[in-house]
Write a sequence for this structure.
């Protein structure tokens, strides 16, 4: 995924480079005549999301026109509107697909995590923090900042696939560790909320004054996890 800060170039070299960027971000989809198969339906669904994501992330919310998306993909407007009834609905679908993709990719390596709860919490904080400072995540955050009041339903999507999913994963681990280690945890959800909120609050405030690095994230994640683990008797 390219960043919003697309390089501006002059001359043939600049136009060629911009063309390569646009081509790389376009979905690999070719419309076909006749009744689509299940695989073709899935390909259409994904092509719509990828095209919309490219426009939203590189040009902003206002730059996307539903008719233009349909025209670019070679599908009818009815096909597009049957899936996403408005530009706002399409934005919510893109956000859900994007964040779910990040979460699924992260979860695919959960089996490699150590069993000890402190090490697991530290790794969760590192993963979340490192993802948050990646360009694509920052673009998504900027997009949210610009349209959150115009598209209020977007906030519920962020909560569902972002906050709520993270809290569920972490609190489940805390509960499992409490049973395994014989150390009670009366409020696993509350502990998970404290961890996540402390990390995201730190990210928000630090990014206002400096460009964070993975090393910065790792250092804060370690200090935060150490503090929370020291309070384990009162979980």
């Amino acid at each position: 995924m390219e960043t919003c800060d697309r390089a501006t170039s002059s001359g043939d070299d600049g136009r060629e480079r911009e063309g390569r960027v646009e081509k790389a971000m376009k979905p690999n989809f070719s419309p076909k005549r006749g009744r689509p198969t299940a695989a073709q339906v899935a390909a259409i669904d994904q092509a719509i999301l990828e095209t919309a994501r490219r426009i939203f992330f590189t040009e902003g919310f206002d730059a996307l026109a539903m008719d233009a998306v349909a025209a670019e993909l070679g599908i009818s407007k009815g096909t597009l509107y049957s899936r996403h009834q408005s530009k706002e609905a399409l934005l919510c679908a893109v956000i859900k697909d994007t964040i779910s993709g990040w979460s699924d990719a992260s979860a695919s390596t959960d089996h490699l995590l150590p069993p000890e709860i402190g090490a697991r919490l530290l790794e969760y904080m590192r993963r979340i923090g490192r993802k948050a400072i990646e360009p694509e995540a920052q673009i998504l955050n900027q997009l949210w900042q610009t349209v959150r009041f115009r598209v209020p339903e977007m906030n519920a999507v962020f909560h569902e696939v972002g906050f709520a999913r993270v809290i569920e994963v972490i609190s489940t681990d805390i509960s499992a560790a409490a049973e395994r280690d014989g150390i009670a945890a009366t409020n696993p959800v509350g502990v998970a909320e404290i961890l996540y909120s402390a990390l995201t609050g730190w990210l928000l405030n630090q990014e206002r004054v400096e460009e964070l690095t993975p090393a910065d994230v790792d250092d804060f994640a370690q200090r935060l996890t150490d503090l929370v683990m020291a309070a384990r008797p009162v979980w």
